[in-house]
Design brief:
Rossmann fold, 2 domains, 9-stranded mixed β-sheet, about 30% helix, elongated, AB_hydrolase_fold, AXE1_dom, FrsA_esterase
């Protein structure tokens, strides 16, 4: 039997240079200062479906999907300052072990009945919540809210104000994998701030609001997008179609890969929203661009009166004119006082010294304050406990669960036991399928949405089998992808299940090595059976590189993974696309997948989302799928470990037949438990033996 013909996979250098892969993903890069256009949503149902995607995208990006448990808070008031008609309380509470929210609660001195509660996140002014200078005096704003009959809580961003051991420049690659980011930490704190305000005996939990400027504006619209307890919002000088935020705390991985801030802001609909902008920053176009787009969403609900735009002639700020517009807006919707801005002019107030607003005296630390390593450990422990909670340990299985460590398999011969385990798996799959898909940014296209550009066709014969070889570029219509693919089809009528093949070193690697002949022998057998083979170069492998240089993206762009998918995610996408095409073009009931080397990692991620997936064969060596450093080096995908990593990918695809070689012992034991407890032992093979 002939070995795989080398010319099958390796065009000449001249041809490679001439036919450089025209994949739009190489050059069409998203970034924070790129102008974006708000999509058209024709119906309320269309928008509601999109809004649900956006909310999930924010939560997945922030590492908060599924939402962690929110145990009762134990707020501590370290000092209380009483003034004529309002009170200031210095407050702290833990949101993670050793990780605190610190802030000041401003409330009326005499509270009659239930009153609104307003969260006041601050922006990047140097002194944070203590700033009382030009443009954004936070204490002045909160005092006036209290005088108007509200409870206003101003609180620190990470690394600001009362001392935190976690820097405002915090970022780690391990954190990326585990879903631990500045944005996520601050969003979690803001959610807990709402919990705190709602827990106060004199606050009406149905009348909560949020307002902040600049980075505080980002915190405002992200909180309102994911937490419907916010009934009124006023993000100030932030929502823009051409500037998305310039700090790490506004740019978590995967956040804006297919969206932007105006869409997030529109998630407030139909709740009352005031867009405050100014003429001297990136919100200068709000009355003409961002406001009409968001108002269009409100009109779908028939609530156009619930959104308003105010523009102040000033530089970047939260100045007096801006604050007075916000006071009137909040009074209208939270206090049922529609008097207008003239009734809410500011009056001179005496603000406090910084040292009197601190939760702890300067130079002292809160008890058990966590540093960045301890914070990562606490976040990771919480996430792992949440994942394991879907699979409780059971006496019938010797105290084992699908998720926990150990090698014992569940006794699938017990019908009641098997039924309960299948229910656990089904519940996990329902909870994690969409978040996992959104974390990777995977689309599952329909066959009719794909196109295949034919770049050449030849016929040949090997081992008595005549075949046609078609050189293709695959991709979704109008998306600009160009996935190099060789379609190997028998000239005689086919009809069998196609096989998609991917190698971590590109498709030409199938012809290398001692088993090149064995590979071709297997492919030739498929051809005799009427099956087709599709040799694929996933993203940035094989034909993407010409002989003179390796191509890639300009990943030095600021906040690159906030706006662009990681390489591993794009490679998983290409396998999904190729499998949909192969199955569709043959009209086959299913499709098989064969992956080698690092392509095995991408195949494991893609498997849950391949329609009609049949058998999967993965051949590798030294797959350390539970090791953060290994994943960072070989298959970096932000948020992957937060959502359970390759274990979750396996559960989402189970019990589809799987043969895999090269796993470490722990992951292999997990697969045995999973397939054993699902009664599908016969569908799993570890190693290449029969």
């Amino acid at each position: 039997m002939d070995v795989l013909p080398r010319g099958l996979f390796r065009p000449s250098a001249e041809a490679r240079h001439r036919d450089r892969i025209p994949d739009k993903r190489l050059t069409d890069l998203r970034h924070e200062n790129r102008p974006y256009v708000f999509p058209h949503y024709a119906t309320r149902a269309q928008w509601l479906a999109r809004a649900e995607e956006l909310r999930r995208q924010v939560l997945v990006s922030a590492g908060l999907c599924p939402m962690p448990e929110r145990p009762g808070l134990k707020p501590v008031v370290t000092r209380s300052l009483r003034r004529d008609d309002y009170v200031i309380e210095n407050v702290c509470f833990e949101t993670l072990p050793g990780f605190y929210v610190t802030g000041n609660l401003y409330r009326p001195a005499e509270v009659r009945g239930n009153i609104p509660g307003i969260a006041n996140p601050h922006g990047h002014w140097k002194e944070g919540r203590f700033w009382d200078g030009f443009g954004n005096p936070i204490a002045t704003r909160c005092i006036h809210f209290a005088k108007q009959g509200c409870a206003a809580f101003s609180y620190d961003m990470v690394g600001y104000g009362d001392r935190q051991a976690v820097s405002h420049q915090y970022r780690s690659l391990r954190g990326d994998l585990r879903g631990i980011t500045l944005l996520g930490l601050q969003l979690w704190n803001s959610i807990r701030v709402l919990d705190y305000l709602a827990s106060l005996p004199y606050v009406d939990p149905e009348r909560l609001g949020c307002t902040g400027a600049s980075g505080g504006g980002t915190q405002t619209f992200l909180l309102t997008a994911v937490d419907e307890r916010v009934k009124v919002a006023a993000p100030v000088n932030m929502i823009s179609a051409h500037m998305q935020g310039g700090c790490l705390c506004e740019n978590a991985p995967n956040l804006r890969t297919d969206s932007f801030n105006v869409e997030f802001g529109a998630c407030m609909a139909p709740r009352p929203l005031l867009l405050v902008s100014c003429t001297g920053d990136w919100t200068r176009n709000t009355p003409q661009v961002e406001y009409p787009a968001i108002r269009g969403i409100y009109e779908l609900f028939g609530t156009g009166e619930r959104v308003r735009c105010v523009q102040i002639e000033a530089d970047h700020n939260y100045n007096r004119e801006s604050r007075e517009a916000v006071y009137a807006w909040f009074a209208r919707w939270l206090l049922d006082r529609p008097e207008g801005e003239a009734a809410y002019r500011e009056t001179p107030v005496q603000t406090e010294r910084t040292e009197d607003l601190r939760v702890t005296p300067e130079g002292t630390a809160l008890p058990g304050l966590a540093d960045e390593v301890a914070l990562e450990d606490a976040w990771t422990s919480r996430s792992e406990a949440q994942l394991a909670s879907f699979f409780p340990k059971r006496r019938e299985s010797g105290g084992q669960s699908i998720w926990n460590s150990g090698t014992q398999e569940g006794p699938s011969s017990f019908p009641d036991f098997l039924s309960s385990r299948l229910q656990e798996v089904a519940r996990f799959q329902d909870e994690f399928r969409l978040p996992f898909q959104q974390m990777l940014g995977l689309r599952v296209p329909l066959p009719q949405d794909l196109r295949a550009e034919v770049r050449g066709t030849v016929e040949g014969e090997s081992g008595g089998v005549r075949y046609g070889l078609h050189k293709l570029l695959l991709g979704e219509k109008d998306r600009g992808e160009a996935i190099p693919t060789l379609r190997l089809a028998p000239l005689a009528s086919g009809g069998g299940v196609p096989v998609v093949m991917a190698h971590g070193d590109g498709k030409r690697a199938w012809a290398r090595g001692e088993d090149g002949g064995a590979v071709w022998e297997r492919v030739a057998a498929w051809l005799r059976e009427g099956r087709e083979g599709f040799f694929v170069d996933p993203w940035l492998t094989g034909e993407y590189h010409d002989p003179a240089r390796r191509v890639g993206r300009a990943e030095d762009l600021k906040f690159f993974t906030t706006y662009n998918r990681a390489d591993a995610a794009l490679r998983a996408q290409d396998l999904v696309t190729a499998c949909v095409y192969a199955r569709g073009v043959m009209g086959a009931p299913g499709v098989d997948l064969w992956a080698r080397g690092d392509a095995g990692l991408w195949a494991l991620l893609a498997r849950p989302f391949i329609p009609g997936l049949g058998r999967t064969l993965i051949e590798g060596r030294g797959y350390a799928l539970e090791d953060d450093n290994y994943i960072l080096e070989r298959c970096y995908a932000p948020g992957l470990r937060r959502l359970g990593g390759f274990r979750t990918a396996a559960i989402l695809a189970a019990p589809a037949p799987l043969r895999v070689a090269g796993l470490d012992g722990a992951f292999g034991a997990f697969l045995r438990r999973l397939y054993g407890m699902m009664g599908a032992e016969k569908d799993l093979t570890l190693g290449l033996s029969s």
